[in-house]
Design brief:
By secondary structure, the chain is mostly helical. Among the domains are: about 90 residues, Ankyrin repeat-containing domain (Serine Threonine Protein Phosphatase 5, Tetratricopeptide repeat, Alpha Horseshoe); about 120 residues, no CATH class; about 100 residues. It is elongated. One of its GO terms (cellular component) is plasma membrane. One of its GO terms (biological process) is calcium ion import across plasma membrane. It is a multi-pass membrane protein. It holds the Pfam family Ank.
Amino acid sequence: MYSLVSIPFSSGEHILSFAACVGSEEIVRLLIKHGANIRAQDALGNTVLHLLVLQPNKIFACQMYNFILSYDKNKRELGALDLIPNNEGLTPFKLAGVEGNTVMFQHLMQNRKHIQWTFGPLVSTLYDLTEIDSWGDDQSLLELIVTTKKREARRILDLTPVNELVSLKWNKYGRPYFCILALFYVLYMICFTMCCVYRPLKCRQSNKTHERDNTIYIQKLLQESYVTPEDSLRLVGELITVIGAIIILILEIPDIFRVGVTKYFGQTILGGPFHIIIITYACMILVTMVMRLTSTTGEVVPMSFALVLGWCNVMYFARGFQMLGPFTIMIQKMIFGDLMRFCWLMAVVILGFASAFYVIFQTENPDELGHFYNYPIALFSTFELFLTIIDGPANYEVDLPFMYCITYSAFAVIATLLMLNLLIAMMGDTHWRVAHERDELWRAQVVATTVMLERKLPQCLWPRSGICGQEYGLGDLAWVLQPEDGQDPWENYRNWRWKRLWAHT
């Protein structure tokens, strides 16, 4: 007799599901014989087949799966039992892929394949792409795998026919389109950079208000910015830049609502921080445009942010190349993982010591020791000291405050010896952890990029992959794929014949 407390897995809310999950075929047969509903769903919408996918004993789960399906042959008018989705829209086949259950996935894939012909060792196999291909399916297996956080699910990408489908899509359409997109983006960024370099400036007419004031050019007003032919040429580039920023927002925002904010910005496979970078870049472009139209001074602030973010986003396109893609993942993990955590610690240290340095030099002549003459410059100078970009500011021709020597000594020990070595240790640990899965993550990124391009491009530019099942008598709605093993089948046949002859001799 089974104890409910001792069952280490979910067995649903129905007695039939419980009997199937514990592997009792006799009880399952008895329950079905007395009218048990094999299509019953629990509160999560899971049928008995969904629950079998989740069982830890995968071998007996596959056997029980076939046993349950054998009772569904007489009820096809209600729809196939294995095509009933749960509350999350997942059929048992999709659930096996999302959970990374490779045994059940391969078992179900074997049930879905069609043997076209056999000739000795030669076998022509057709695999049904229903629920796998992302073409025309808003919740395909490919998209589910790249949006899940489970590492086990990524192993499905190495199985037949998923790996053949991904390779076909990427090599035939994905890589060429992605390279073209990268080229257009680089040209777009060059156009934006030229517009910033030659932005409208004029000589300053007003007198200096302070001896440290070094400004000689100021921003032109809107009516002064577009007068000469050179200004008209720059206007064309600025219009291209603004239109490009609007297109970026139009393409990005729908995906945020479709995938979800957490997954879209938080997962490395989907691009994660690069989406934040490109959306922020587009917003900075629009802010710069508003400031230009209203003749508001200070457009250099959003313009500078946009330049840095726009060029940093070029790293996103490295995922299209096998040589650079895995290392981009490494950089992504370090910058947006270790470095972000380290910045919090660094900010606390810099704020504390910058305040101390400013107070110490508050009574001193800034012409002799000008690194801390006001608070913003004190923060920046302390940041440079933290990264050892500059040496400790000191003018030995004048008397230094006594507390400066003590404070700077403590700062040198904490910043240089402790904090920077802590950052190096954190990045070294991340490198060791990510090195074991970076190639796997890169392959998943290729799948995510392929699905993204397929969603955004017109279907006329991305024909459906595979072969229509009508050619093989499988129906108009079925699309199949015939994997290639990369070897000459007739060579295999000749080797097989030689082995048979040698064994007979």
